[in-house]
Structures are given as C-alpha cells and as structure tokens.
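Is this the right way to post structure tokens for a design question? Let me know if I should format differently. Anyway, here goes:
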C-alpha cells in the first residue's frame, strides 16, 4: 500500500500525519493491542479529516454570509454579561451542511428510500422552525407538525420494537403501542433538546455526545461482540454509524461556535438535533438505554419540567419559563460557563461509563435508574425546598421591567 504524502500534508496537520504514519509503518492493531477494539484504515482516517474540513467550510460560510446580510439575533435582557448581536438561525447550515456532506462522501445513501424519508422529515422540521424563528408559529401547530414528521419517518421505515428484553424476560409489544411509543420518542427528543438550549452551546454539546455514542456503540460493541451479523445488517449499521459521525462533527463544531458565541443555531438547529437523535437511536432498535443515560440530563429535565408545568404551575407545558436545569444552576449562583462545563463533563462521563459496560445490560439498567433517582431527588430539593426557579423568574421579570 502506498499513499501520496504531499496530498496528506495538505489535508491534515503534521501531528496527525505523524500519528497516522506510526499506525501505518508499525502495523498497530487495535483489535489485539487495546481491549479487543477494531482497527481503522488510513482511508477511513483521511475521510474523517476531509469531512471535518468540509464541515468547517460550511460552518464558516454560514457565519460569514449571515453577518454580511445582517441576519443577526437580538440578545434579550436576561443575557448576562451583555453581548453584541451574532449571526442567527445557523441551524439552516447545520441541516443543509449535513445533507450536503452526506451527498459528497456517501452519495449511495440517497438511493436508500428510508434515508430519503428522513431527509423529508428534516426539511419539514427546518421549514416550520424557520417560520417560527422569523414569524412565530403557534406551539400547538409546531407540535402537530412534529407528530406528522414522526409518523412519516416511523411508518416509512416501519420502525417499531416488537419486544423488549429485561434480563431473562422478553416482553412482546403490540404494534399500536409500539407506534405510539415511537411517536412519543420522536416528539420527546425534538422538544427536550430544543428546551435545553437556554444557554448557548448546551444543546450542541449534549447532541454531539449522543451522536458520538451511536458510532462508538456500533463499532466497538456491536461489531466486536456480535461478529455473526449478516452482510445486509452490517451495511445498514455502517450507514447509521456514518450518519451519526457526520452529525457529531457538525454538532461539535457548533458547540465551539456557540460558546462565545460567534453565532447561534436557534430552534432551526436544535429541533433538527432532536429529530436526528430520535431517528438514529431508534431506527436500529438496540442500545436505547445507553443513549438515554448519555442524554439523561436532557431527557429527565424535559420530563420534570413538563410534569411541573402541568400539575404544579398549572400552565401550558409548551410555554417556556425559567424552570429548566440550567436556570436552576444559575439561580444557585453558577456562571454560564460553569453550567456549560458541568453539563459537558457529566454527559461525557455518563457516555463513557455506559460504553465501558459493553453488552452488560443489567449494569446499564442500574446506572440508568441511579441517574434517574439522583436527578429527581435533587430537583425535589431545588423546586420544593429552595424554590429557586420561581425566585429566579421573578428576579428576571423585574429586570425586564
């Protein structure tokens, strides 16, 4: 095997070249040297770096073009410290850039009718989000559109879980119940990720963790521990892994963009994150618990806020407020950067913890239950004893007046 070092130097930094040369010349084999994991070819590494460069170009183009066109956000009075307006609705370039990158590097996927239905769902979510960003759309209409998109993707791909295995028990699930569960799964993810974007960079990071979890599960758990997978299923799982990896690259880049921020995704991007996470985690019908734990802060926060709005605050659960996790931490005196780093570290650690369990399902269930109990006991203390969200809401309302 021979490769052109001149081309290689144009694509990747010198440090990466050194690392890849070492892999190539020393014949390093991860399958025998490191926990039984599979090795990666040079072509796979080069494609990864090429995708990163294309994503960087698309992200940069989005920021530059919207800055030039004056399409900027309007920071509200709750943004502390104050900042200048930045390019808004960058979710357009997230969605469009993802599909363009797939067309460039994995064009065959567009001949898969199931993927095309996902593309249609993404376009509908993009359209309704854009309308809401610039003209404001009624929350009930947005909800019905989300349900419609969920049904399109679910029915087109015939996504449903015929059974659930708990330890040695196998529970059969009727199709109608599975269909309802799948719709709820999609709608929950779309809204949970969107609601978690109260501080710039949170939604992008937790989404990047979710997207990274899927290819790691497929490559280092499924392919390693289930070598008897049929060729057709192998190709399908490889497609899911590729799609997830591209989305991880984009979401990680937008985490960096939104940190300062230099631009914001708005609902146009965060709702697409939710749709993609729901689709990619459910479509291959396995390892859902790992995704739930990696994104437990997002999911549990959405469940808590939804229940609290209905039964405690007695208000429309789709109407926003300051009762989310990130606002509660701000009310404790944390800075926005501290909240970001806490969420980032927690999500990453939980992902690693679940991946280290490999295919040990009982321990994964125990970890999920423990994270659930800890989260809700902390929320009970903050909500009903400290009453922090309501005081924070009153404080910010008084500032606006």
């Amino acid at each position: 095997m021979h490769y052109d070092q001149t081309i290689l130097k144009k694509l990747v930094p010198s440090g990466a070249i050194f690392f890849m040369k070492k892999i190539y010349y020393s014949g390093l084999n991860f399958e025998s040297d490191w926990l039984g994991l599979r090795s990666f070819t040079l072509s796979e590494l080069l494609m990864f770096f090429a995708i990163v460069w294309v994503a960087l170009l698309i992200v940069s183009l989005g920021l530059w073009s919207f800055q030039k066109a004056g399409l900027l956000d309007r920071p509200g009075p709750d943004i502390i410290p104050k900042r200048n307006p930045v390019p808004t609705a960058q979710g357009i370039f997230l969605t469009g850039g993802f599909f363009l990158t797939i067309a460039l590097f994995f064009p065959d996927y567009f001949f898969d009718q199931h993927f095309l239905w996902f593309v249609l769902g993404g376009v509908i979510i993009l359209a309704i989000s854009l309308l809401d960003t610039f003209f404001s759309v009624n929350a009930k209409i947005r909800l019905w559109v989300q349900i419609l998109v969920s049904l399109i993707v679910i029915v087109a791909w015939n996504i449903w879980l015929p059974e659930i295995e708990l330890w040695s028990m196998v529970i059969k699930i009727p199709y109608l119940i599975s269909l309802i569960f799948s719709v709820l799964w999609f709608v929950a993810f779309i809204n949970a990720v969107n609601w978690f974007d109260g501080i710039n960079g949170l939604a992008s990071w937790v989404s990047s963790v979710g997207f990274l979890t899927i290819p790691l599960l497929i490559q280092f758990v499924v392919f390693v521990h289930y070598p008897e997978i049929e060729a057709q299923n192998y190709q399908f799982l490889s497609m899911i892994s590729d799609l997830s990896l591209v989305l991880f690259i984009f979401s990680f880049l937008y985490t960096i963009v939104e940190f300062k921020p230099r631009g914001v995704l708005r609902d146009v991007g965060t709702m697409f994150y939710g749709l993609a996470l729901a689709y990619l985690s459910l479509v291959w019908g396995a390892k859902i618990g790992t995704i739930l734990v990696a994104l437990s802060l997002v999911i549990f926060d959405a469940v808590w806020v939804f229940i609290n709005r209905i039964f405690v605050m007695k208000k429309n659960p789709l109407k926003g407020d300051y009762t989310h996790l990130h606002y509660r931490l701000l009310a404790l005196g944390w800075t926005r950067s501290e909240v970001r780093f806490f969420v980032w570290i927690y999500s990453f650690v939980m992902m690693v913890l679940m991946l280290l369990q490999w295919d040990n399902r009982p321990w994964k269930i125990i970890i999920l239950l423990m994270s659930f109990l800890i989260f809700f006991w902390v929320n009970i203390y903050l909500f009903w004893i400290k009453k922090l969200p309501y005081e924070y809401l009153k404080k910010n309302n008084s500032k606006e007046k």
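Format looks fine. Someone answered above. Worth noting: The first helix runs from residue 5 to 11. Strands lie at 163-166, 169-172.
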